[in-house]
Design goal:
Elements (H helix, E strand, L loop, with lengths): L3 E5 L5 H10 L3 E5 L3 H8 L10 H10 L3 E4 L7 E4 L14 H10 L8 E4 L7 H10 L11 E4 L9 H7 L2 E5 L2 H11 L7 E5 H32 L3 H8 L23 H7 L5 H27 L25 H8 L1
Parallel strand pairs: 1-2, 1-4, 2-3, 4-5, 5-6, 7-8
Antiparallel strand pairs: 6-7
Helix pairs in contact: 1-3, 4-5, 8-11, 10-11, 11-12
Length: about 325
């Protein structure tokens, strides 16, 4: 059954998700506070880059199934896909999630479903969203249904992974989970796993923390190898010939909206129990400075007194335009 959707947040996740729902027959009203982005989208122009997005946006708009606005509207389903960055003190900034939830309150009606896609600390749905949604006067879980279904995509392959990846759906009750599962089944071919909202939040943060910890291990090996005169890349390559070893490649740091941010969510809620997580974050955060130090050291060894340094690559990974938390920018600042 086709639904009307109101998607709040038309960035790297919200816009591709919106057009996917639209080209699969749902009527989608996208919302963003960026007036320029809204104008561009309605004119079938992109304010972000993603493979396959342009043709899908054109298809959705031309079919009359997708339009953008700066204000929400009534719908069957509300999807919140706004940023959840960290502050300078490494605590989660949930203002965007809170304000987005407040923005939809006047438009929510009985029988609606509210889905949070943003990656957030565990208990955000329970402690941040639900108190706001209670202002609707609707009974949560009986008249208004709420779930968390975090995105699981990589920039550059968003549409492929939206379809093929397994998806987690965590509702505040069984009805919320079932409604969400049925909606995403309109285009998701991967398995959809049902759980509760807080477990879904935890699972998503675990995924990115796992990757951060493993990257930190590789970077720590690089630091040790440099100290004792070993080529870390060669040593890791040789170690990976072991059938049960798969170490990542060292690098100048970690970037992006997930891996460089999400582990701090766990560190914030349980600082005394997250020692490995915090050490990994600090190790990876140190790598841009270390990279800059290495460049300076090479310059001295080559007797270059006033070096000009060219840095290739500003985004946090190859072949995308996304510079969020990019270690390249930090290397530049250090230099």
């Amino acid at each position: 059954m086709k639904k009307s959707l109101c998607v709040v947040g038309l960035g790297y996740i919200g816009l591709p998700t919106s057009v996917m729902f639209a080209i699969h027959g749902h009527k989608v009203h996208g919302v963003d506070i960026n007036h320029k982005a809204v104008e561009m989208i309605n004119n079938k122009q992109l304010h972000i880059e993603e493979n396959g997005l342009q043709e899908r946006l054109e298809e959705a708009v031309d079919a009359g199934l997708f339009k953008a606005s700066v204000e929400p509207t009534e719908a069957d389903v509300f999807v919140i896909a706004v940023p959840s960055p960290i502050r300078e003190d490494k605590t989660a900034n949930l203002d965007y999630v809170r304000k987005a939830t407040e923005a939809i309150v006047p438009f929510v009606k009985e029988g609606n479903l509210v889905i949070l896609e943003s990656t957030v600390p565990p208990r955000t749905v329970e402690d941040v969203m639900i108190p706001v949604l209670e202002q609707t006067g609707l009974s949560i879980g009986e008249e208004l249904f709420v779930s968390h279904s975090p995105e699981r995509v990589i920039p550059g392959k968003v549409f492929q992974e939206l379809v093929d990846n397994d998806r987690i759906v965590g509702g505040i009750n069984d009805k919320s989970s079932t409604m969400t599962k049925e909606l995403y089944e309109s285009f998701v071919k991967g398995n959809i796993h049902l759980t509760d909202a807080t477990t879904a939040e935890m699972a998503k943060v675990i995924e990115n923390t796992y990757r951060d910890v493993n990257i930190a291990f590789a970077n720590e090996l690089a630091l040790i190898s440099d100290k004792i005169g070993v080529n870390s890349w060669e040593a890791i390559k040789l170690a990976n010939y072991h059938p049960r070893v798969n170490i990542h490649t060292p690098g100048p740091g970690v970037g992006g909206h997930c891996i460089a941010v999400d582990p701090w969510f766990l560190a914030e809620i349980e600082p005394d129990l997250s020692k490995i997580i915090q050490l990994s974050r600090n190790t990876n955060d140190y790598m841009p400075s270390y990279t800059a130090e290495q460049i300076q050291q090479i310059s001295k060894e080559q007797f270059i007194n006033d070096p000009k340094v060219a840095l290739f690559g500003l985004s946090f990974k190859a072949n995308i335009d996304d510079q969020r938390e990019s270690p390249s920018l930090k290397v530049i600042m250090e230099l």
